[in-house]
Amino acid sequence: MITRVRVDDLRVSCLIGCLDPERVRPQEVRLDAEVQLDTHAAADGDDLRRTWDYAAFAGRMSFVLEEAGFHLLETAVRFLVRSLLLPPVTGSQRPPVTAARVCLTKFGALPGDALAQVELSARREEVQFRQEAKPWGTVDVVDECRRLGLYRLNLAPGATIPNHLHRVMNESELVLHPGLVGWQVGHAPRALEVGERFQWPHHHAHGYQNSGERPASLLCIDSPTFDPTDEVLA
After folding, report:
1. Residue 15 near residue 69 (C-beta atoms within 8 A)
2. Assuming Cys at both sites, which of 4, 119, 129, 183 could form a disulfide with 189, CB separation 3.0 to 4.6 Å?
3. Domain at 3-126: CATH architecture
């Protein structure tokens, strides 16, 4: 048996669209999303760690929409579906997602009460991910387009992403797991909460350390796409 975990009618205010007014004024979109996974272990143990937390599910989707500033609904749904299909990080008890579906509805784009919608579904075996090794862990390349990229940064226990800045790229990051300590210019290091968001304009130095005993991850949006030559130790 397969369980479907759904988030329906999530309203998100974000920049989305190609017209000039849409690039400066946020608009509300509706998101309906679903993941399929085996939740037998979660049900047997009555254990949230072994299923998909729908609050975290909604938070992750909102983060991507609000921080990416997509031009096309088609790009947005592809990024979202691929992010849902990412395999769990090492040490996670959550079972892998076997299929995902995302539908985005845009209001006011058509005359009258007509609604513009774009929907995408995919199964895990249809999607390939590239993983890159780093001195502090790994990076999963979730998706990239002409303007931006979505990545999952996986810090090994005790590992540190050293203090650095970007000369061109702007970054937004979402904390996915406990155990991370973060810092930025002018602020002392502090323990980070799951669900915290950060916006790093270019030339703003920051860094992270995994103080936990398990891998810990960040979801990262780079605009433009990540360029290793743009990363400078600070």
Report:
1. yes
2. 183
3. 2-Layer Sandwich (3.30)
Q: Report pLDDT digits (tens) over 60-107.
A: 999 999 999 999 999 999 999 999 999 999 888 999 999 999 999 999
The domain 130-233 belongs to what CATH superfamily? Jelly Rolls (2.60.120.10)
Q: Cα separation of 234 and 73, whole Å?
A: 37
What value, to the nearest 5°, has the Cα angle with vertex 153 and ends 122 and 88? Answer: 45
- Residue 81 — left, alpha, or beta (φ > 0 → left; ψ -120 to 50 → alpha)? alpha
**How many residues appear in the chain?**
234
Segment 118-142, tens digit of pLDDT: 999 999 999 999 999 999 999 999 9
Half-sphere exposure of 130 (CA within 13 A, CB side): 7
String of DSSP letters for 161-221 = EEEEEESS-EEEEEE-STTEEEEETTEEEEEPPTT-EEEE-TT--EEEEE-SSS-EEEEEE
Q: What is the pTM of this model?
A: 0.95
Dihedral angle computed from the Cα positions of residues 222, 224, 229 and 231, in that order, rounded to the nearest 10 degrees: -40
Q: Which residue has the tokens 């990051």?
A: 173
